[in-house]
Write the structure tokens for this entry.
Amino acid sequence: MSEMELDNRGREILREIIRNFIHSGEPVGSRTISKIHPEGLSAASIRNIMADLEEMGYLMQPHTSAGRVPTDRGYRYYVDSLLTGMEVPRSDRERVAEAVRGQGGLPEVLAEISRVISSITHQVGFVVSPDHTLAILKHIEFISLGSKRILAILVDRSGVIHNRVADTSEEISQEELDKIGKYLVSEYHGKTLTQIREALLQKMKEEKARFDTLLSRALALGTQFLQAQEEADQQVFVQGTSNILQQPDFSDMEEMRRIFETFEAKGRLVKILDEVVGSEGLRVVIGSEHPDPALAHLALVVSPYKVGDQPAGMLGVLGPTRMEYARAMALVGYISKLLSRILTVPPS
């Protein structure tokens, strides 16, 4: 049977079963639905509808004497077709505003956002930092540390500061380092780090670079710093993993171990997120839809945030498939737009 065969009555029954199960965590029986259904259907009529929904794959019966619980397909239909838009409550918006106000640099802001997401949803909140290679150059300078060691300080258009210590093959005076920094800013201001590195590599092939000492050093130093930036891992801020322990949905210790290993291997988590999130808009991934079997009993609500029109990082919620989807989706969508605005408008 197809989803098109769900009539209005079936849709209403499915919606009420899923809502009830999300809040109670207990299989939902026909008597429970008959008490809250506005049409006053008998328990027998509701049982017949529930049996049809089970045959369609939207519900399952964990035990013969128990009520029904949603399947992944049921949750998918609920998210795609039965949910109505939800406004983020004012109290939640104020908590988010407080999270981004008065913090230090971007890492502190992102860490606080992950904490607030977890606190509001009572699930796992996460934020993946922007990809370094997409940062747009605003300013760069080099400071001599002596002993052929140089501190490179890059400020991107969003005000994020990137630091890196580089070892050089020769001593370079501070005066020369100042000139190198000014040259790179004048030539490459407004370009991404990837674009700059490609341009530097191209210039190094030109004849002029071989005879101009300052230019040669600028190209070498800039390329060395940018390569190190490209190889640096994106930061992942995860809060609320202990919330999973409090969920009755997870009593299997082996499953818990696999979930926590995924959270701890942050590079693996970023890879999973890259596979499911698109460049546009919010995504919901439910249970068996996950590319990683370790997350087969989890739901993911994730959205990219941007710098300008370029996707930068990701943020979202991870929790059991029995999560409050409407609230999680509204919150993730709201924060991703807010963070995009903050990062796109250059600090004064």
In short: DSSP finds 14 helices and ten strands in the chain. The first strand starts at residue 59 and ends at 60. The chain has three domains: 3-82, 90-130+234-344, 133-231.
